[in-house]
Amino acid sequence: MASLPSPNQTHVPLSPDPGEIPVIHETQFPWVPVQIVTHASQLPAEFLEPCAERPLVIGFDCEGVDLCRNGTLCIMQLAFPEAIYLVDAIQGGEMLIQACKPALESSHVTKVIHDCKRDSEALYFQFGIKLNNVVDTQIAYSLIEEQEGVSYLEKEEVRFLLRQDPNFWTYRPLSEQMVRAAADDVRFLPYIYCRMMGKLNQQSLWYLAVRGALYCRCFCITNNDFSDWPPLPTIPDNLLVEGSAPEEEILSVLDVPPGKMGRVIGKRGTSILSIKESCNAEILMGGDKGPPDKVFIIGPVKQVRKAEAMLRGRMLDMY
Predict the structure, then answer these.
(1) Tell me, what DSSP letter sits at residue 174?
(2) Which of 55, 194, 200, 250 is least surrounded by Cβ atoms within 10 Å, i.e. has the fewest?
(3) What is the DSSP letter of 289?
(4) Measured between alpha carbons, how far is 239 from 241 in angstroms, rounded to an integer?
């Protein structure tokens, strides 16, 4: 990666016009400022006050300590074409993050992110924010592979973090390394979004929207069955063709008896892998970050029900 003249600038690729050959060399990308935000007044007005007349597409990510419901959200990164904003949750506090809530929940601001589950969980349980209208590049890559039958490799960016220090993102002032690492996580996302959207057909675009919404809800389980969350995207009319309409997608949460998750997973993951291979559904577990003793299933209704039955069968085998 090309060296930066200061920690407050970075290269950001511009979205190519249709038919235009994309720029490959990073040095050809324009420089944009990287701004550390501690007050809402430092953010663009169109972000703070989203509206249908000014739709936005931004790169989005979060950094923190053990980022989940019980961790600490330290930084939110927002990538715009003209600047990257590092929203400092430690210095700006609750007031700053709440100022971002309308945009993070808005259907007029598309948030492009790679794997939204833990970010959404942290925002929901720490700040009451229901992350909405995301394009999850992790989902998009799998849809492109499924649709085209070929591997679509993600560009790997070098990221130097002090993994041995779990409090890395809490230190202030932000070091040059921290600023660069945070900016690197989001600066390509709007560009990747534009490239990917051109590869997906109408059905895949609907899958991308609904699965992104379900991923945002995944670890945000409550007792109200997500009744206070924005509604899931509906199947577009042009896809409601008899015999070929996509099946409704759902999120199911199964409780596992305490201490028995290991039997569900199986030795070296063999049990859960066999279920995944038998069902066209995503099966997730909270792992060390939790929530514990629960299995999350996302996919078409019939495949989710099939996975549920197989998992319940494993649970019955426990006794």
Answers:
(1) P
(2) 55
(3) G
(4) 6
**Closest of 254, 200, 209 to residue 110, by C-alpha:** 209
pTM (predicted TM-score): 0.85
Residues in CB range of 305: below 8 A, 6 or more apart:
none
Here the tokens at position 239 are 């896809």
What is the dihedral angle through the alpha carbons of 253, 258, 262, 265, rounded to the nearest 10 degrees?
-10
Exposed, middle or buried: residue 185 (CB in 10 Å: 0-12, 13-18, 19+)?
Answer: buried
pLDDT, tens digit, for every residue of 101-131? 999 999 999 999 999 999 999 999 999 999 9
Do the Cβ atoms of 42 and 86 come closer than 8 Å? no
pLDDT of residue 46: 96
CB count within 10 Å of CB 309 equals 11
What's the whole-number mean pLDDT along residues 51-70? Answer: 94
**β-pairing verdict for 72-79 and 56-65:** antiparallel
- Select from 26, 113, 122 the least CA-distant residue to 78: 113
DSSP string computed for 230-269: PPPPPPPGGG--TTTPPPPEEEEEEE--TT-HHHHH-GGG
- Is the dihedral angle over the CA atoms 100, 102, 105, 110 positive or is it negative? negative
Q: How many Cβ atoms are within 10 Å of 202's Cβ, its own excluded? A: 11
17 pLDDT higher than 60: no
Type of residue numbered 241: V
Strands 294-300, 9-11: pairing is unpaired
